[in-house]
Amino acid sequence: PYTTLFRSIVTDNSSSPATSFAEFKDSTTGKWTLCMSNYFIPQVVVVDTDLSVRTEIAWALESSFNALASSVEVYINPASTFNPAYRANAVNACISIFTNIKKIKDDPDDPYARRLVSVGGIYSGMASGMFGLGYNHLITHHLISRFGVAYGSYHIVLLSCALTLFGNRITGSLATLARELHLCTAAAGDESAASTFIDGFKRIADMSVKELPPVELTEQEILRIAEDVRKEAVQFGLTMLDQREITSVMNMAFAR
Fold first, then answer.
1. pLDDT tens-place string over residues 191-204
2. What pLDDT score was predicted for residue 136?
3. CA gap 197, 163 in Å, rounded
4. Which of 96, 167, 179, 226 could join 163 in a cystine, given CB atoms 3.0 to 4.6 angstroms apart?
5. Is 50 exceeded by the pLDDT of residue 2?
């Protein structure tokens, strides 16, 4: 019987082509809307690394930072410990992006590093497709809906702030990820290894965007977004942060 084959061709380093999430711009209002459906998951994903290598470097970097943030959020999701295959995808994404992103920033013409980062984005998407979005990804979509796609740059910065404020609650996961990335020795204690990962991730976040677009939100608007994010996160099994704590992450990121 005839069936429709949904295909996705990857032209940057984004994780979205392999996920059940898509953003659409309303031509009437100009606002971006996040949609989630299993119908968005393609049966075939074509990773054209040659095309990715020719993607304009600013967009290649931004999509790489977002894919890295998504993969880390998947890894620290409590549910990932029960799904080792998807957690392995998150590790593969982190390895590909974490270890090569500075290389492509310093040398945009390094084709091998750019190919590795591009493949890392797909691994990130495959992991995200199982566990959904993390707190900081959800906040970012609220910013995009209000202000436009340029505010997607906040994803990795928000996650860096969240790890700084509340990383002590997930020391074990961060320590294991640090060892997977060879950021520390296998014998390093959990607290030391987790701290090493947080510091390394912060350096990458600081490298992402030197000047972020300003966020013009009132205190009440930030509180409302924080409460919406808290409720939305429950759908993905996330209950670690309350409204006040999500607000503190946003305030720290927006004050950057």
1. 999 999 999 999 99
2. 94
3. 10
4. 167
5. no
Contact indicator for 101, 64 with CB cutoff of 8 Å: yes
Three-state secondary structure along the chain? CCCCCCEEEECCCCCHHHCCEEEEECCCCCCEEEEECHHHCCCEEEECHHHHHCCCHHHHHHHHHHHHHHHHHHHHCHHHHHCHHHHHHHHHHHHHHHCCHHHHHHCCCCHHHHHHHHHHHHHHHHHHHHHCCCHHHHHHHHHHHHHCHHHHHHHHHHHHHHHHHHHHHHHHHHHHHHHHCCCCCCCCCHHHHHHHHHHHHHHHHHHHCCCCCCCCCCHHHHHHHHHHHHHHHHCCCCCCCCHHHHHHHHHHHHCC
- The model's pTM: 0.83
Q: How many angstroms separate the CA atoms of 185 and 166, rounded?
A: 23
pLDDT greater than 90 at residue 232: yes
CA 108 from centre of chain: 21
